[in-house]
Amino acid sequence: MAFDVRLEPLDAKDLPPIEYRWDADTDILVAMLRPAGVSEGVSGSLDFEGSDGSWLTFELVDGRLAAVEVAVWPDVKSVATLQAPEPTLAARVRIPQQGDDLLTAMEVDTAIRAVADAPERTIHFRIGPTRASRAVHVARDLLLEVDAKQRIAGLWFLNVPPFPAP
User: pTM (2 decimals)?
Assistant: First the structure.
């Protein structure tokens, strides 16, 4: 199923906070946003499934991004330092309603690659083939990469709390 990502510019001071939450039993990391404002669009999930079994799930509420869950991790390449790109704008990301679908689950099979800095406080997910993209600030510690066709190309988790100690 094809979908359009729409960006609604906003002032950087109006970016929603983000709350990262680890599930120590399953290694699931959830990034929860508190989207503000009234919107219309699909509610449900947009799942990116990697060929290695990895899963990134985007939870949508009224067409707006409400959470991102890393359900099954791809292999994570570790580097000493990882610098996030400078965002080109601050915006809300929206996936408009598709026909009469008000609640839906969409699945996209694609490559998912992950790179993290040594302390795993910055994590970059590349979604799909490598292509030119720009970073958009969608929450205080979350960047979304979109390509020229307004498709999701990647995701940056910033200031991720450490995995809980056993």
Answer: 0.89
Q: Residue 44 half-sphere exposure, CB side, CA atoms within 13 Å?
A: 15
Structure tokens at 20: 């990262």
Domain annotation covers residue 163:
no
Total domains present in the chain? 1
CB 34 within 8 A of CB 59: no
CB atoms within 10 A of CB 23: 12
Q: Residue 93: which domain range?
A: 6-157
CA–CA distance, 31 with 28 (Å, rounded to integer): 10
Give every CB contact of residue 111 below 8 A, 6+ residues apart in sequence. 50, 51, 126, 127, 128, 129
Q: Which amino acid is at 161?
A: P
Residue 118 lies in a domain: yes
pLDDT 10s digits, 32-90: 997 555 556 667 888 899 988 899 999 988 878 899 999 889 889 999 999 999 999 99
> Residue 125: CB partners within 8 Å, gap ≥ 6?
56, 70, 74, 112, 113, 114, 154, 155, 156, 157
* DSSP annotation of 141: T
How would residue 98 be classed by pLDDT, with cut points 50, 70 and 90?
A: low
DSSP tag of 101: B
Q: 120, 70 in Cβ contact below 8 A? A: no
